[in-house]
Amino acid sequence: MTAPRKVVLAYSGGLDTSIILKWLQVEYGCEVVTFTADLGQGEELEPARRKAELLGIAPENIYIEDVREEFVRDFVFPMFRANAVYEGLYLLGTSIARPLISKRLVEIAAETGADAVAHGATGKGNDQVRFELSAYALNPDIRVIAPWREWDLSSRTKLIDFAEAHQIPIAKDKRGEAPFSVDANLLHTSSEGKVLEDPAQDAPDYVYQRTTNPEDAPDTPEYIEIGFERGDAVSINGEALSPAALLTRLNELGGRHGCGRLDLVEGRFVGMKSRGIYETPGGTLLLEAHRGIEQITLDRGAAHLKDELMPRYAELIYNGFWFSPEREMLQAAIDASQRHVTGTVRLKLYKGSARTVGRWSEHSLYSEAHVTFEDDAGAYDQKDAEGFIKLNALRLKLLAARDRRLG
Q1: Distance (Å, rounded) from C-alpha 55 to C-alpha 34?
Q2: Catalytic residue (choose from 143, 181, 263, 324)
Q3: Is 202 a catalytic residue?
Q4: Does residue 127 carry a catalytic annotation?
Q5: pLDDT tens for residues 165-194?
């Protein structure tokens, strides 16, 4: 295969992607464009610019972009309208960031005339699948380079040797093996590997970065109110906030009270199981509140259908099919269900838990007149239930009669 002329690299500025940057230059002799996304990972990104310049990248070929608002508005919020959780627990924080990164890689490739994109995902994980499925869905002619599947730098020692041979700066703590690997964005932090690889062992407390240990959280509960419009959160305690600002505030509130910790052994798309420690404080509050407002605004049939569709929707995101027609079909159905999901939810935050304790809406389907144990003033005729039960019991009675007859 001919060497690419120009490659757009998803670049963090860390050791691994810096080695990839230099490897692309050495292996292919190609021009490299770097793209660094501010997804709310909480790190200063200017060092990535300086590192790229040090490695010979022209200033016009260095893209550093704040995509936090787009990330929450166009990816996180649509996912939370579905109440999506993978394998019943995981709020998909890493999964949902990959299609946005891929989208910008492909767009920058078009803008700069690049004929390939590259990523730093390994050949063992899910991210390689997510990056590449998204890229091909957006540009079927794009070439994707995955160095971890191509090079012979198969050990930390070889990586360090390559870095030193090419004058790539190495932080002192990178000369040994890191205790665990971390991926972070505005929705969550994900920690995997090394000290976490034995699922029988409790994760050390230093692994957690965004959440207070629930045992050390405030002894007094805190109540907050989250406002929704058509399924999306729009305010906290009456203050209107942009999507990214709102999730940032929820992270602060949830993190303070130790909400959103998860120790999970999950089934990767590539076939193996892996153990990860996830922290999703703001997302945990958002999911609880969204379900709370749906309880009073969503019809039972629509709510139950949504719950049936959700595992499939979550699996599509986890497996990298954000830009697939089936995900878009499910999204259309989910979004249609959110027309009246408007109102306010009150949450109680305390020692690692976030519980709905109140919800109200002008779009509410809840009728106190129908459910009251007091006089309902004729709102509901209890005699109607008799015929309802008889019709639903008919097939059960016929089955029972047949079974009794046949012994």
Answers
A1: 11
A2: 181
A3: no
A4: yes
A5: 999 988 766 555 557 788 999 999 999 988
